[in-house]
Amino acid sequence: MEIFKGKVSYKGVAIGKIAEMAKNEVVVRRSHVEDVEAEFARYMEAKTKAQEQLAKLGEHAAKEIGPAEAEVFEVHSMMLDDFDDQVEEIVKEQTLNAEFAVAETADNTKKMLQAMDDNPYMQARAADIGDIANRVLKILNGWDGEDNSFTEEVLLFANDLAPSETVTLDKSKVLAFVTREGSTNSHTAILARTMNIPALCQCPVPADAAGKMGIVDGFTGQVFIDPDEETLAKYIKQREAEQEKQKLLLELKGKETVTKSGRKIKLYANIGGIGDLNFVKENDAAGIGLFRSEFLYLSSNDFPSEDEQFQAYRTVAEMMAGKEVVVRTLDIGADKQIDYFNLDKEDNPALGYRAIRICLSQEDIFRTQLRALYRASAYGNIDIMFPMITSVWEVKRCKEICEEVKAELTAQSIPFKDCSLGIMIETPAAVLIADELAELVDFFSIGTNDLTQYTCAIDRQNQHLERFFDAHHPAVLKAIRMTIEAGHRHNTWVGICGELGADPELTTSFVEWGIDELSMSPSSILPVRKIIRDMD
Ligand code: PEP
Ligand code: MG
Question: Is 139 exposed, middle or buried (0-12, 13-18, 19+ CB in 10 A)?
């Protein structure tokens, strides 16, 4: 087995026979011509044919892939028009042959584009110039436009792949692209993404691998040639899991999360920041059930200002376009330490100065965040959620501060909405007083990670305790059920945003117990939607 490593252009796993892209390389010779008019006419004829082929490729791409990819060929056709003046000059003034003139013009244009160091898009277009010129050169050599075709599914290896080459391939036959050169900005990467197949570039795979078995791992960037049985078995399993996910994606995107008898569940995503929003959209979350706002603080060297936070919350609210976005206020301490908070070292940090306890002790930090949140609320549908609640007074104090912040904003004529307020249920104390808490808030979200830690008295961070950490512990499940029932007694909706919310073994129970919302990492959404839609 041989292993090679490249850069990932697009994720996925593919297993199959390797094929090498056949290139019709053209050797360009420099020679003088006598009839310069006829030579230039020969170029114009070849160029017209090339443009006809590009138009056909565009039509093919529009049908097979999409209008955006089809546009590439229109752009290529226009780029070819820009060759005319230089070719004419070389042919007519230097009395040189059309092939040389085309190659020379392509070289000059490429150099010009490559010189744009700060523009990766233009640099990637330099590779396209080579492809366009090659097409004209091949036509000048008598080529009729037929490209590579494969009779079976292949992992396609190539030095580089031009869009015209990738699009003419029968895409049902290509399982992955691996190029020795190329960039993650290239059209091959764009096409791979659209075709949903893994692609690697800058991967030094050998040129004589055609016909051998291979594996392309578009997560780690590895290529295995002649894989051993163990590797093959591992990847067959991984590919099956990926294919299952893909199937779910296709089938369930855009569908409601509803049981057969019509019970609707809000299936939301957990995010750590704006960067995760793509996955939220990709996986069709109906909202955001947990925005862990502490990541804004963790990624900063100092307290993020009100404006910085406002921008982040506003962006999320706007990008979710009116869908519900639950932002949890700062939850640091314990496993999430931040230097600039200068927190004391504690003997029991998980039981210590963390989350709402910090916010209610250092109110200036809390007020800054709440002002940012209320300001952002004017741009979407933001809910505010408080973490690590153990007592009624904490919730009452949080609500008082919210009222003060709103009064301040009103006095300053700053617009805001009256956000729904909720709390995390992640301590046994909160479960046991859930009835009293429910009277104070609009929603509960059960944080099963901490709820398990505190209910079972097991440090969730300690790897030696993994065998004792049982999220399915009957006490945890009972606590969840009690919370749902207490919430519903007071018209308070109840969700789960801890990891257990995505546990497929428990989805049916949660729904049967009356859960209103499940929030999870985006990639779990569609599998859970499937379970719910399959329920009676
Ligand atoms: C939880 O405790 O379940 C939770 C969602 O919060 P975090 O994991 O951020 O502590
Ligand atoms: Mg927690």
Answer: buried
